[in-house]
Amino acid sequence: MKTLNVNWFRKTVVLAVTTIAAYSVPAAHACLEETNLDCLERSGGWAIARDWSTGFVPGTNTNAFIGTGLTATLNSGFGFANSLKLGPRSALAVTSGAGMQSGSVDLEGAGTSLTIGADSTFQTNNLENINATDGALAGGVVTIAGTLTANNAFAIATIAAGTILNLVENGALNGPDGNALQSLGTVAEGAQLNLTLGQNLNIQSSEFTNAGHLYIDSSSVLNVTPPVIVSGKKALLDLYGNFTGANGILLKGGATAMGGGTVVVDDDEPFINDAFLAPFDDSGNPTTFTVDGDYVQESDGDLYIFIAGNGSSDSSLVDVDGSATLDGTLVINVDEGVTLTPGTTIPIMFASRRSGKFTKVIVNGTTLPVNVSYGPTEVDLTIG
Q1: pLDDT, tens digit, 9 for 90 and up, residues 74-120
Q2: What is the C-alpha to C-alpha distance for residues 233 and 252, in angstroms, rounded to an integer?
């Protein structure tokens, strides 16, 4: 029997920027402190720590490096750099309406964090490791509430493993021709794309595959024109807002869709569950998962229903605006400590039309019989 790993459903909290320190040096690459080992280890050298937020901002001929584990904040004015590198576990925050422009930006190691705050801007001619030559967003945590413009980022095809991209509210990742994410095709295993606080993102690639963690909060929208595939044992669609897949959405290969949001699909392009659908939130509370269009559950598909009480609002619900075609497995989980009342009827699915039945039913958490009844437009559970 397949099992559901709830640890997949925990979102990563963005690294907080708390301290202020940076390295900078004129383009001559002279090492200003012989005792600075990080400086001496680098070809050409770097420079002493500077505080960018209290008056010092790099000049256009400056090569700036934020050392391993250090954090820099630019919260006023406009900073320039010939090049900017962030070492492992380092962070740069551009906040409070400040701006930054750099000829190149390189997120060098694991755990790096680049944050563009609301009303702030960042512009670069070349995004190294962030936007590699193969079109991969590959490195650290990138949080954008303002605007990050990459003059070479014609299209970002992949958010690679180990990368977290947070788009917040009106945050935008732009290339020279507009939204650099319009052609995004893959969120790789081990990567995250988080849309929060009213973010609205449109993707128009030839195909969109999520093998990582895709999170859409209750105020955000993701519109994808090509067919959508959510595939892989670590693939997660964590949905609380709206996700439109104009040409259908396929859940397969051990992937999981959870949350209390809405998937929107066009006529004749259904939402297909050939993996796991689990209508509950990050705290394990039952939710309503809405399908605006047709829902098809195939033979390898599992629907997890969570029951936290005897009321109709105490259990998971799938609300299908179109037709529901059923197959596969229904898994019913009764929360620990819940005593079900015999004779109680709990609706678990509504649809305009229902066809087919679950071929297997698994009940966990109660010794009472749980019977599944099928009507023309709904599926109910009857206790006892």
Answers
A1: 777 777 777 777 777 777 888 878 788 877 777 776 678 888 998 88
A2: 9
Which residues are registered as beta bridge partners of 194? 166, 215
Token representation of residue 356? 């087919």
CB 71 within 8 A of CB 21: yes
**Residue/partner pairs of 260-265 with CB below 8 Å, 24 or more apart:** 260/218, 260/287, 260/288, 260/289, 261/216, 261/218, 261/289, 261/290, 262/290, 262/291, 262/292, 263/239, 263/289, 263/290, 263/291, 263/292, 263/293, 264/292, 264/293, 265/291, 265/292, 265/293, 265/294
Statement: the pTM of the whole predicted model exceeds 0.85: no
For residue 296 the two structure tokens come to 């098809």
Query: How many Å apart are CA 6 and CA 215, to the nearest integer?
Result: 15
How many Cβ atoms from other residues are within 10 Å of residue 190's Cβ? 15
- Cα(248)–Cα(268) distance, integer angstroms: 8
Q: For a pLDDT cut of 70, what percent of the chain falls above it?
A: 77
Q: Which of 43, 37, 62, 42 is CA-nearest to residue 52?
A: 62
H or E element that contains 40: helix 37-40
Dihedral, 366, 4, 299, 367 alpha carbons, nearest 10? -10
CB 87 within 8 A of CB 58: no
- Residues 296-335 have pLDDT tens digits of 999 999 999 999 998 878 999 999 999 999 999 999 999 9
3-class secondary structure, 60 = coil
Place of tokens 């930006």: 105
Task: Give the tokens for residue 269.
Answer: 């392009």
**C-alpha span between 23 and 64 (Å, rounded):** 6
The C-alpha atoms of residue 83 and residue 342 are separated, in whole angstroms, by: 69
β-strand partners of 195: 167, 216
Q: Is the dihedral of CA 216, 217, 218, 220 positive or negative?
A: negative
Q: Which residue has the tokens 């955000």?
A: 220
The pair of structure tokens assigned to 14 is 């963005």
Cβ proximity of 19 and 71 under 8 Å: yes
